[in-house]
Amino acid sequence: MSHTKLYTIVFGVLFVFATVQALVETVGLLDSNYWLAFGIIMVLSVIKALLVAGYYQHLRWEPRAVSYLAGGGLLVALALTAAAAYSIV
User: Fold this and answer.
1) What span, in angstroms and rounded, lies between the C-alpha atoms of 53 and 60?
2) Is the C-alpha dihedral spanning 18, 57, 70, 85 positive or negative?
3) Interatomic CA distance for residues 48 and 13, integer angstroms
4) Which ranges of 1-89 would DSSP assign to H, the alpha helix?
């Protein structure tokens, strides 16, 4: 499969996920069932982030060590954010 076709498919999937996220917000699901809407939006956001990192930032074709380094940096950032949030509350 050519890179142009692959990037177009990934773009289409990202567009659909973003549209679903917007629909979850506009339909009123946030008002009626907040945690379900929050879960849907978070799952779609994680999938979108993985698609962007994997294809548009070319981590899919990099050595595994580079992907592990990026994932480790993400975990450290999440840990620091959680620690900062815990100290504020």
Assistant:
1) 8
2) negative
3) 8
4) 3-27, 29-32, 34-51, 64-88
Domain boundaries defined on the chain: 1-57, 63-89
User: Which pLDDT does position 14 carry in this prediction?
Assistant: 93
What are 6-44's pLDDT values in tens digits?
889 989 999 999 999 999 988 877 778 888 888 898 999
Q: Rounded CA gap, 84 and 30, in Å?
A: 27
| Non-local CB neighbours of 36 within 8 Å, separated by 6+ positions | 29
Query: What residues contact 21, with CB distance under 8 A and at least 6 apart?
Result: 40, 41, 44, 45
Mean pLDDT across the chain: 86
Closest C-alpha to 60, from 20, 6, 12, 22: 6
